[in-house]
Amino acid sequence: MSTGESRGVAVLESLGSVTGSPWIYAMVALSVLLDVFVPLLPSGVLVITAATAAAAGSAATGQVPDVMVLILCATTASVLGDLAAYRLAFRGGARLDRAIARSRRLTTAQERLGDALSAGGGALVVLARFAPAGRSVVSLLAGTAHRRARDFLPWSALAGLSWAAYSVALGYFGAHWLGATWLATGVSVAALFGAGAVAAFVMRPRPGQAEAS
């Protein structure tokens, strides 16, 4: 084993010890919960790093990391964050309504979301979870449009579960396939950003759609 790889293993083993404590789950939950309001928070990177460290701990000690708890933690925090943004926009949406009305792109997005939820097809909600700031936009738009919680929340839960499972799988299997090094974490993070870029591309305004004013 090379010196660089040995150092990578040592660092990730240290992270693995933190991952095994309740604190890492609290950090993940707080980061995922708040990034609906502050999309710049690196919650996805934190989830991947925790999963990578869990894989490193598994390889070093033979113990099975509790990745299912990590997925559950991230999913629950994602749904709670979505619900908080949804309720905030639902109750105090006058100023936000005016802001949306001034933007044709946001108005179009709101209409698309409403149509998707009414038709029982919330694929847009799931897709937006991977796009940069897409989660924030969808949750706020659902609130300002006064969509029913029972129409929005099931899709929010599916979106959160999909995102959490994908992120954890990237970190965990990336470490097993590429070794317990920072290369594995970097490749996994790049794959997460790649999924976000694809989601943003799919959700982009089509030719002929109204542009932002």
Automatic annotation (TrEMBL):
Regions that span the bilayer: 20-38, 45-61, 67-89, 152-174, 180-203
Domain VTT positions: 59-172
Bilayer topology annotation: Multi-pass membrane protein
Principal location: membrane
One of the record's GO cellular component terms: plasma membrane
One Pfam match: VTT_dom
Subcellular location: Cell membrane
Signal peptide: none
PANTHER family, A to Z: INNER MEMBRANE PROTEIN DEDA-RELATED, TRANSMEMBRANE PROTEIN
Entry's family note: Belongs to the DedA family.
Protein name as it appears in the record: Integral membrane protein
Organism placement in taxonomy: Bacteria, Bacillati, Actinomycetota, Actinomycetes, Kitasatosporales
